[in-house]
Amino acid sequence: MLGTWQIQRRQEKLDLVEKLKSRTSHEPVELPESLENLETLEYYPIKLKGTFLYDKEFIVGHRSLLVDGAPVNRNSFMTTNERGYHVVTPFKLADRDLTILVNRGWIPSSLKNPKRRKESQIKDETEITGILRLNERRPPFVPKNRPHTDIWYYRDLDAMAKKGDASPIYIEMISNNNTDQYPVGSQTKVELRNEHMSYILTWYCLSLTTAFLWHRKFIRGIPLVE
């Protein structure tokens, strides 16, 4: 029965959300020497030391601000649900000849010009922690990315790496939740679309209605239309 199948699918989705939350709250791990092992580390926090290359920085838009892994709403301590951008900055690692991409967080549209957020730049070598994300295929019916105008509908790591002159390795930086300074970090989305409850109700209601009409016509012999 389709309703029962939707119950199973809903539970699978809930289990996946818990798995993602468990990964994001895991103790930070080191970037593996063999980058082939990255496939098993998505959503894990990665600890890195290196230097930001701000001259190759670019923005990714448009994006909504996330708080605790979900889009912020008007009732939260953040009073705006303005759409803005993510700031992606190449990061040269200190312990190997490798430059990766770091999503430093969300900024409002008013700070799109990098000259207006120079105070957030860390000039010296620093240690950061970020959530590892893998490449994202273009979803059905989603427009193509427009890298030249900083419009990105999905995470194309090869195109992003080309734009930032880096390797296609991407982490979403974790911050200390200092909301007075931009970019606002911790922009990893751990909320998944889950509409299975409405599907469950729909299919069971259809089943009950069909059963009632069948019983009325074939068991009680009452015509459907009088």
Verbal overview:
The protein has 226 residues and is an alpha+beta fold. Helices cover 24% and strands 24% of the residues. The chain has three helices and nine strands, in the order αββββββββαβα. The protein has helices at 2-24, 157-164, 196-219; strands spanning 29-30, 45-52, 58-64, 66-67, 70-71, 83-93, 99-108, 126-133, 170-173. The strands form two sheets. Strands 2-6-7-9-8 form a five-stranded mixed barrel. α1 (2-24) runs antiparallel to α3 (196-219). The longest helix is centred in the C-terminal third of the chain and has 24 residues, at 196-219. It is elongated, with a radius of gyration of 23 Å. The model is unreliable at 74-79 (pLDDT under 50).
Radius of gyration: 23 Å
Low-confidence stretches: 74-79
The overall pLDDT average reads: 81
Q: Strand order, biggest sheet? A: 2-6-7-9-8
Major β-sheet profile: 5 strands, mixed, barrel
| Count of DSSP strands | 9
- Alpha-beta classification: alpha+beta
- What is the H/E string? HEEEEEEEEHEH
User: Termini, distance in Å?
Assistant: 31 Å
Amount of helix: 10-25%
Give the SSE layout:
Elements: H1 2-24, E1 29-30, E2 45-52, E3 58-64, E4 66-67, E5 70-71, E6 83-93, E7 99-108, E8 126-133, H2 157-164, E9 170-173, H3 196-219
Parallel strand pairs: 1-2, 7-9
Antiparallel strand pairs: 2-6, 2-8, 3-6, 4-5, 6-7, 8-9
Give descriptors for this structure.
3 helices; alpha+beta; 5-stranded mixed beta barrel; 226 residues; 9 strands
Report a brief summary of the structure.
Helix content is 24%, strand content 24%. It is built from three helices and nine strands; from the N terminus they run αββββββββαβα.
